[in-house]
Design a protein that fits this description.
Blueprint (H helix, E strand, L loop, with lengths): L1 E5 L4 H12 L6 E6 L7 E4 L2 E7 L2 H4 L4 E4 L3 H13 L3 E4 L15 H4 L8 E3 L3 H17 L1 E9 L6 H16 L32 H14 L5 E5 L9 E9 L5 H9 L4 E3 L11 H4 L5 E8 L7 E8 L3 H17 L1
Helix pairs in contact: 1-10, 5-7, 5-10
The structure holds 3-amino-D-alanine (2RA).
Length: 332
């Protein structure tokens, strides 16, 4: 397939190219698009050296697949037009995720939603990591309420987020100066910030509401009660999520562990006696979402469960999920 990655120099764009290579996606020609500033730069890829181009609809003509890792405005302007020209499009932005005619897909959960569609939205990273573990529990025990608290890595804010964390940590430790900030609302080193994306009239942030809106759409349960508190922490990679659920039917930690162990995209890491549980350090670079600390939650009696998830948000939360969608589009 002739594949274009749009936003190829960003944190997600770079991962997209690597994941295409790792999964041996049948790329006959790779086109990399980024801002005019990067145009002409040659970069090494698993498919050979490729020169970055500035995007234009003409330059993208003839592509079979376009993977978009750019802004919502770009997606609004170009995604539908590309799909109308016969290009299969996977959009990583939030612009089209809740549109009725655009499936929002995590293949382990709702691959069937792809159907004959050629334009598919990739969910927010926090949502993708969550629903991979929630859906098998939902199928087995039913879901009534979900409460999530997240611990999100700097790379959720892109390459600039990672650079700011590194630079400001050095400033504090090496130069003895107060850490500064530009990408985040406050200095991130030695801090946690309960603020990701903009505040909404209901007091939640947009990041928190994305978890609610998108989880409902992907799992096809529009009435699911779900509340999220999203927090930025000073790690480079992997979003962690503490999840409490109330199920429709009785659940035990043993039964939940069994369900999660059999679920695609999830790996159970749950041996507290051996200090083994999900962590950013172990989940970094891993395709599967780690699930552990699985225990009964007494607040909800025999229908309550607590668990802790760690997922590489640049992989399952972004690039890997997008390429998995592309694999399904190719097979459709
Ligand atoms: C973040 N989830 O971590 C967002 C990125 N989409 O900032």
């Amino acid at each position: 397939m002739r594949v274009g990655v749009i936003g190829a120099t960003g944190a997600v764009g770079k991962e997209l190219v690597e994941v295409l290579g790792k999964r041996r996606f049948p790329v006959t020609e790779l086109k990399l698009f980024a801002s005019t500033r990067s145009a002409g730069t040659r970069i090494k890829t698993p498919f050979g050296e490729v020169a970055i181009e500035a995007f234009s609809p003409e330059a993208a003509r003839g592509l079979d697949l376009a993977l978009l890792a750019v802004s919502g405005d770009f997606a609004k302007q170009h995604a539908r037009a590309l799909a109308a020209e016969g290009v299969a499009v996977v959009d990583n932005s939030s612009a089209l995720r809740l549109e009725d005619d655009v499936p929002l897909v995590v293949p382990e959960v709702n691959a069937a939603a792809i159907g004959k569609h050629r334009l598919i939205a990739n969910p927010n990273c926090t949502t993708a990591i969550l629903v991979v573990a929630l859906e098998p529990l939902r199928r087995a025990f039913g879901l009534k309420r979900v409460i999530v608290s997240t611990y999100q890595a700097a790379s959720g804010a892109g390459a600039e987020g990672m650079q700011e964390l590194e630079r400001e940590t050095r400033r504090a430790l090496v130069e003895g100066q107060p850490a500064g900030h530009a990408v985040f609302a406050h200095p991130l080193p030695f801090n946690v910030i309960p603020h990701i994306d903009s505040f909404q009239p209901n007091g939640y942030t947009r990041e928190e509401m994305k978890v609610t809106w998108e989880s409902r759409k992907i799992m096809g349960q529009p009435d699911l009660l779900i509340s999220c508190t999203a927090v930025r922490i000073p790690t480079f990679r992997v979003h962690a999520e503490a999840v409490t659920i109330e199920t429709e039917r009785p659940v035990t930690p043993e039964a939940a562990r069994e369900v999660l162990a059999a679920a695609p995209g999830v790996i159970v890491v749950d041996e507290p006696g051996a200090n083994r549980y999900p962590m950013p350090l172990t989940a970094t670079g891993r395709d599967d979402v780690e699930a552990g600390r699985i225990r009964a939650n007494p607040v909800f009696g025999d229908r309550g469960l607590d668990l802790f998830l760690c997922g590489d948000q640049l992989l399952k939360g972004a690039a890997l999920n997008a390429v998995q969608i592309a694999e399904r589009l190719r097979a459709a």
